[in-house]
Amino acid sequence: MKTLLAHPVLRLMCLITVLSGCAVTDRVPDRSATPDARWAVLTLENATTTPMAGARAEAVARALLHTLGVKEVVRPPAPARDALFDPAPAADTEAALAWARSAGVRYVLTGTVDEWQYKVGVDGEPAVGLALHIIDVEDGSTVWSGVGARTGWGRDSLAAVAQTLIKSLLAPVVR
Question: What is d(CA 133, CA 146) in angstroms, rounded to the nearest whole number?
Fold first, then answer.
C-alpha cells in the first residue's frame, strides 16, 4: 500500500504549503502608476541595524523600475550629510518633493526598510522586510502603498531576496 506522500500531486501541495510561509506581501489593489511618466526613487528610511540598508534597497528599486518598463528614473541630489550615517529621508520628504516638482518628476518611490540581514544560525538565511509608497508629486497624495517580508534559503543572497520582494510588490502597480 502506498503512502499519501508517495503521490506526486500531494508532494507538490506539501512543498507549496511549506514554501508559502517564506513571503508575505500586502498592497493596495487596483492602483497603477504609468511607466511613461518621469520617476524618482528616494533613499528608503533605514529602520534596521544594518548600515546603509535604505540606500541598498533604493538601488535595487531603481534598477527594477527600469526592468518593469519605466522609461526614465532620475536620482535626486544627495543630501549634504556625513556619509558614515544613513540619510533620514523622512525629514527630507518635503525638500525632495519640492525638488521633484522642479525636475518634472511625476512619481516618487519612497519607503522604509524594516529588515535587511542574514539571520543568525547555521544556515544564515537572508531576510528582507520593507514598506514602499508611491507619491504623486503633483498633489502630494499617496497613489499606492505596499509592505512585504521575504526570507530565502541559506544559499540565497540578500540582494536576490530583496529583488524578488521589491519586484513582487511593484510589478502589479507599474503598468
Answer: 7
Task: Find all residues with CB under 8 Å of 85, minimum gap 6, and list them.
Answer: none
Q: Pick left, alpha or beta for residue 147 (phi over 0 → left; psi -120 to 50 → alpha; otherwise beta).
A: beta
d(CA 166, CA 8): 32
* Cross-strand bridge partners of residue 132: 111, 146
* CATH of region 32-78+89-171, choose from 3.40.50.10610, 3.40.50.920, 3.40.50.2300, 3.80.30.20: 3.40.50.10610
52-82 tens-digit pLDDT: 999 999 999 999 999 999 999 998 887 666 5
Query: What is this structure's pTM?
Result: 0.80
